[in-house]
Amino acid sequence: MADETFGFDGTTDTTKSISSWVYGSYFQAPGSGEVKSITWNLNASTGSDFKVAIYNSDLELLGTGTRDNIFVGDIEVTLNSTASITSGEWYWLVGFGSGTISCYYDTVSESYNIGMSDSLNYSDFPEDPLSLTSTYTTREFNVIATYTPSAGADTPTQINIGDSWKEIAAVQINIGDTWKAVEGIQVNIGDTWKEVF
User: Which of 73, 80, 97, 136 is the most buried (most CB within 10 A)?
Assistant: First the structure.
């Protein structure tokens, strides 16, 4: 089964220093599985180091990883061990830098994010549990988690409504004032029909 992602990977030019600060965003998992890496869009000077972590909604640490000597771009950090996630649950995707590092974020109307005091030492991260000292409701950081869906589990078809993933129980189409069940949906890619569900 192919890996999937969740988080925010949009395009933005707005940056915030993540050196000596802990930042992260709160996202709902669209499926169950094992998170194996977290990717941040960063702009860093040579020799900067970066740590990531994933926390559940109770601020309990689920996984962490470190990458040294990062530079510019999408910086993928592999977790030391995979972190289990559950479809529909919410998770903090968090990062903390050492050196001169800026992270990208977008200004949104509703989002749950975190900024921590710079008194936290890089060597002390990650905390368990996470100290949620301040939140911002208008910043969504450019961070995504890559996970392997649970083996053998049927991932339900979902739609995003108001930043929440809702399972689609059935799809119907109206033909001549009669609703007919849609048994499958396909998309054409390179002259080949691929099944969506």
Answer: 97
